[in-house]
């Protein structure tokens, strides 16, 4: 029974293996400062750790800027596609008249 108890305790004390694409909780995702087990960890987007509210806020600002840039680029691509499609549509309505 003691061996089973020891095995269970070891199992639950072990560090979980990281999943691919999920940051480990050992350092700040922005500044890479090591995170101590007894210090506060500021989380963002569910699984991204930061050492301080300032680092977390800076990451939020960077993400907002990237999102605006991506939206602007997507809008530009939609506009470009729309104008090309309209141009093709106008060209297809032109009919040559034989004289």
Overview of the molecule:
With 99 residues, the chain is mainly α. 54% of the residues lie in helices and 6% in strands. The model has no long low-confidence stretch (mean pLDDT 78).
The gist of it:
The protein is mostly helical and 99 residues long.
Task: Supply the key terms.
mainly alpha, two-stranded antiparallel ribbon, 2 strands
- What is the distance, rounded to the nearest whole angstrom, between the alpha carbons of the first and last residues? 103 Å
Shape: rod-shaped
Series of H and E elements:
HEEH
Helix proportion = 40-55%
Rg measurement, Å: 27 Å
Our count of helices gives 2
Strand content: 5-15%
Secondary-structure map:
Layout: H1 2-13, E1 42-44, E2 48-50, H2 53-93
Antiparallel strand pairs: 1-2
């Amino acid at each position: 029974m003691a061996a089973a108890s020891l095995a269970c305790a070891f199992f639950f004390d072990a560090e979980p293996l990281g999943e691919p694409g999920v940051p480990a909780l050992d350092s700040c995702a922005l500044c890479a400062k090591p995170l101590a087990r007894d210090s506060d960890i500021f989380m963002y987007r569910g699984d991204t750790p930061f050492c301080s509210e300032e680092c977390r806020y800076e990451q939020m600002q960077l993400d907002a800027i990237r999102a605006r840039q991506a939206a602007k680029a997507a809008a530009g691509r939609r506009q470009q596609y729309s104008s090309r499609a309209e141009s093709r549509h106008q060209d297809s309505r032109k009919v040559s008249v034989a004289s």
